[in-house]
Design brief:
This protein has 258 residues and is an alpha/beta fold. The protein contains nine helices and ten strands. Helix 4 crosses helix 8. The mean pLDDT is 94.
Length: 258
């Protein structure tokens, strides 16, 4: 996806996939500095641990306590997080989160990134719905206290009933990944036609949740858009140029066999 985007804008850059053991993370970052890497992406289990090896983090990454994108600025390595930004960019193609009442299902890494960015984008209120009380309460408190958006926690027991005042409903769990029949425990009949329903799952792009939401007349957003847009944002962070999202999405769909 990245290399096709580089080629599309005429950049002779390379995007390398490198596996780094947790105990070698510090050495890997020092190697980046020594070899003049422009930046990198990180995934689990490095998103939190890498922060101690960097020179600074963006506002969003600081709030999340997690980094998935590193950029070299004036010789310093600065951490950012493009996951939530990619989601918000996709969401804005359907609706602006500013002033909206938002429901987030889940409280893991994806939920945390999305909650922070949706809050920074001006959401009016937020509800975190999660099966584990500790993690859910922690995320709700973070958004309340640090992002200044009124946020409540709801313990997820049985099928969640979406309140009628909700405007955006986001599945930020992995339910449905690789399984088009997997069901998110949500009362489908509580979805209203004026709601936007989004799913972070990108494979399959149309999950059961999105099919059910469409049957209720909702506008829907699949996880492919988030994945492509976070890559577009990372591309711009590193190169200062705009990638063609269509080129990236085509490469991703080809890789996934869609």
């Amino acid at each position: 996806m990245m290399e096709k985007a580089f080629a599309d804008v005429g950049l002779e850059w390379r995007y390398l996939t490198l596996e780094v053991a947790p105990e070698a993370l510090g050495d890997a970052v020092r190697g980046m500095r020594a070899m003049g890497f422009r930046g990198c992406n990180l995934t689990i289990p490095h998103k939190v641990e890498v922060i101690q090896h960097l020179d600074g983090t963006s506002e969003a990454a600081t709030l999340m306590g997690a980094v998935n994108c590193v950029n070299r600025i004036d010789g310093k390595l600065i951490g950012d997080n493009t996951d939530g930004k990619g989601f918000v960019q996709s969401l804005r193609e359907l609706t602006d989160p500013a002033g909206k009442n938002v429901i987030i299902l889940g409280a893991g890494g994806a939920a945390r990134a999305i909650a922070v960015e949706v809050a920074l984008a001006g959401a009016a209120a937020m509800t975190i719905v999660n099966r584990t009380e500790g993690r859910g309460q922690e995320l709700a408190a973070l958004i309340n206290d640090k992002a200044n958006v009124p946020t409540q926690f709801v313990l997820w027991e049985g099928d969640y009933e979406v309140p009628p005042e909700a405007e955006v409903v986001i599945n930020a769990t992995s339910i449905g990944l690789g399984d088009a029949a997997a069901r998110v425990p949500l009362a489908v009949d509580s979805l209203e036609s004026d709601m936007v329903v989004a799913d972070v799952v990108f494979n399959p792009p149309e999950t059961r949740l999105l099919r059910d939401a469409k049957s209720r007349g909702c506008e829907t957003l699949d996880g492919l858009g988030m994945l492509v847009n976070q890559a577009v944002i990372g591309f711009n962070i590193w190169t200062g140029r705009d990638a063609n999202p269509s080129v990236m999405r085509e490469a991703l769909e080809e890789f996934l066999g869609f």
